[in-house]
Amino acid sequence: MNKLKLIEATKNRCCLTQKEATDLVNLFFSEIATALAKGDRIELRGLWAFNLKKYQSYTGRNPKSGKLVQVASKKLPFFKCGKDLKKRADYPLN
Fold first, then answer.
1. 55 and 28, same structural domain?
2. Which residues are 49's β-sheet partners?
3. Rounded to two decimals, what is the model's pTM?
4. How far apart are CA 44 and CA 51, in angstroms?
5. Is residue 22 part of a domain?
């Protein structure tokens, strides 16, 4: 499912206009991105959790030239699947 299909499903399921459904989905993703940018953990019990994982800097290798390069430290979103989502994925609906 992509964002457009999610908007369409939200529109149909909640009896919203296209604009209202688009605004709702955009707000949801915007709030998740804002919370992650602040370093907050986002969790929907049973479904999933996102938090930032910090990676230290390290020396890597440029695959094209073979030269050593210093890779800066960074923070990346880390996804953890919830228990209920694991069950649903293991036993998909027909």
1. no
2. 43, 80
3. 0.74
4. 12
5. yes
Under 8 Å between Cβ of 10 and 20: no
24: nearest Cα among 13, 36, 16, 33:
16
> What whole-number distance in Å separates Cα of residue 76 and Cα of residue 21?
29
Going through the chain in order, the beta strands assigned E by DSSP cover 42-44, 48-55, 58-61, 68-71, 74-81
Structure tokens belonging to residue 6: 């999610």
Q: Specify whether 28 is located in the same domain as 61.
A: no
**pLDDT score recorded for residue 88:** 85
Positive or negative, the CA dihedral 53, 39, 50, 72 is negative
Q: How many domains does the chain have?
A: 2
Owning domain of residue 77: 45-83
Contact indicator for 50, 36 with CB cutoff of 8 Å: yes
Residue 92's pLDDT band (cuts 50, 70, 90): low
Same domain, residue pair 36 and 52: no
